[in-house]
Amino acid sequence: MRPRHPRDVLVGYDGSDNARLALQEAIFIAQTSNARMTVVSVVPDVAATINAVWLAGGDPAQLSREMRIEVAATLEEAIEQIPEDVPVTKVLGQGHAGPVLVEQIDRIGCDLVVVGTRGRGAMRALLLGSVTEYLVRHSSVPVVVVPPPERLRDDLA
């Protein structure tokens, strides 16, 4: 069976070094496969944080607005890195990143997911990041996991 070329590559982007590497890999795959890209950034659920902010006398609604603005700016940062010859869809999600990304795979019809993973200490070196692990377990399409950059890999030894 010949491998298929992806038609729409989804990448989750949070602005981290690992997400930047995953984005670059997704761009490469999309360009070489003549595929579309879907970039998803997720505003996290902040219910517990909002309670703490409220108890400290802060404004939970303001915190929520600020988080949404920050994540939207991160998404725009990713979009700016994608060459003009690659068609792209951007999605600003809300909730837990893993389930939001899986939902987008099915909703948009992506056929490949590219994500980064982060380096961890020796005790947890065998574990992927929680979002990456969720995707590997729940995605209906192949998941490409991009390893951390060399400067973050030292703690994996």
TrEMBL record:
<dbReference type="InterPro" id="IPR051688">
    <property type="entry name" value="USP_A"/>
</dbReference>
<dbReference type="Pfam" id="PF00582">
    <property type="entry name" value="Usp"/>
</dbReference>
<dbReference type="InterPro" id="IPR006016">
    <property type="entry name" value="UspA"/>
</dbReference>
<protein>
    <submittedName>
        <fullName>Stress response protein NhaX</fullName>
    </submittedName>
</protein>
<comment type="similarity">
    <text>Belongs to the universal stress protein A family.</text>
</comment>
<feature type="domain" description="UspA">
    <location>
        <begin position="7"/>
        <end position="147"/>
    </location>
</feature>
<dbReference type="InterPro" id="IPR014729">
    <property type="entry name" value="Rossmann-like_a/b/a_fold"/>
</dbReference>
<dbReference type="InterPro" id="IPR006015">
    <property type="entry name" value="Universal_stress_UspA"/>
</dbReference>
